[in-house]
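Before the break, one more example. Copy the sequence into your notebook; we will annotate it together after we see the structure.
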Amino acid sequence: MSEPISIPSLVTEKKEKYESLLPQIHALVEGERDLIANLANIMSALKYGLNFFWVGIYFVKNEELVLGPFQGPVACVRIGYGKGVCGTCWKKAETIVVPDVDAFPGHIACSSESKSEITVPVFKNEKVVAVIDVDSHILNDFDSTDAHYLENISKLIETLL
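Here is what the structure looks like once it is written out:
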């Protein structure tokens, strides 16, 4: 697929935006076998399709999370197990929604512009192998709708691994 990601301007509800975006993301990766290319396009589609401040993926490597493809300002490259929102997501093996990153104990501030965050684990053989990280410059920007659809993206990524 070489067409740009497009969310109709009349679509204003978050759920509708995700439902418009998901088929486009599936089309982006269909037939492409390169993991990095697919992840780069998925992160770009999420950032520009949903107007996120920052979106990326961290991979579990040698007992730490290491930055993978992302869209947005430069980011922290390595995150320890149980450290910050991403490391906590990895440790708990569950989606974490943080309404105010300044109120999250041990939050790692890669950018002072980030105000809220959601992290979603990616599994392979029932083990966390990566973490999707999405930041917003707006407080309390993420909810169960984001969790639901980003968990669907996580499942798509699992099929690409």
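Residues 14-160 form a domain with the Beta-Lactamase fold (CATH 3.30.450.40). The chain has one domain: 14-160. Try to locate both features in your own notes.
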